[in-house]
Amino acid sequence: MKILITGGAGYLGSVLAPTLLAQGHEVTVLDNFLFKQNSLMDCCPYEKFSVVRGDCRDEALMKPLIAKADAIIPLAALVGVPLCNTDAVATQTTNQGAIELLCRLASQQQWVLMPVTNSGYGIGEKGKFCTEETPLKPLSSYGVTKVKAEEAVLARENSISFRLATVFGTAPRMRLELLVNDFVYRALHDRAVLIFEGHFKRNYIHIRDVARVFTHGLANFEKMKGRCYNVGLDDANLSKLELCAVIKKHLPKFVYVEAPIGEDPDKRDYIVSNARLAATGFAPEWNLDRGIVELIKAFTILRNTIYSNV
Hints:
Layout: E1 2-6, H1 13-22, E2 26-31, E3 49-53, H2 59-67, E4 71-74, H3 81-86, H4 88-105, E5 111-117, E6 129-130, H5 141-154, E7 159-164, E8 166-168, H6 179-189, E9 192-195, E10 201-206, H7 207-219, H8 221-224, E11 227-231, E12 237-239, H9 240-250, E13 255-258, E14 271-272, H10 275-278, H11 288-301
Parallel strand pairs: 1-2, 1-4, 2-3, 4-5, 5-7, 6-14, 7-11, 8-10, 9-13
Antiparallel strand pairs: 10-12
Helix pairs in contact: 1-7, 4-5, 6-9, 6-11
């Protein structure tokens, strides 16, 4: 297929683009290279790879790129609460406005497979799993804009939305500030972390399983289209304190302490069911322990914080 990926040089795109190329797809990446990353260098030898430096909000640029695509995977976004809080206008125009533009320019025959965040669930009911039917109650501008973008995408005929759990794992365009990545980095280099609101629970998923869910969606598009799917690990609905306990198994010198005062700016707290996606035949390959071992190796190499959104 001819696949257009916006934001394809980012954390997810830097894993997904080479995966799609290796499967024989023709891949065009649009990215503004905001973080000066070189994450697509391994894609350049592929004859079926092309890259455009530009902005996904630029209609004149996007129109011909969309017209040539069979499928569009819009990854371009300001991701995470801290980054979104630095620029409210860019958050709205990129996370929501650019998706609404894409939906207006794309034909009904073209496929759109889009990632959003399961942080849209906000604060869930204690002991009750959030399913795709659970009312969305986003708490941040990041969550709000992603929920609005999902509404636009699912309003068209040929679309799939993947509600991603908190992603972890290594990628050519690395991000250190994601929760698991951050805690493992601190456990290895600082050997300590101070936790705010450690009882807050969330779900997790490895970056390579996220790439796999997109290839799964492409391969099973006709039976999956028109719906949203939670994407996470069933055995990883964990609080921050429980996550730290898992990390400590691999790094015994790690010390973690919960602060008696203070708040986490990302207030999400919920557990998630991934049964709908599992029913389509998808199963994750990377559990939390395997990902932590991978991250320890990666952070033996990386010892600085340029690999972060904020």
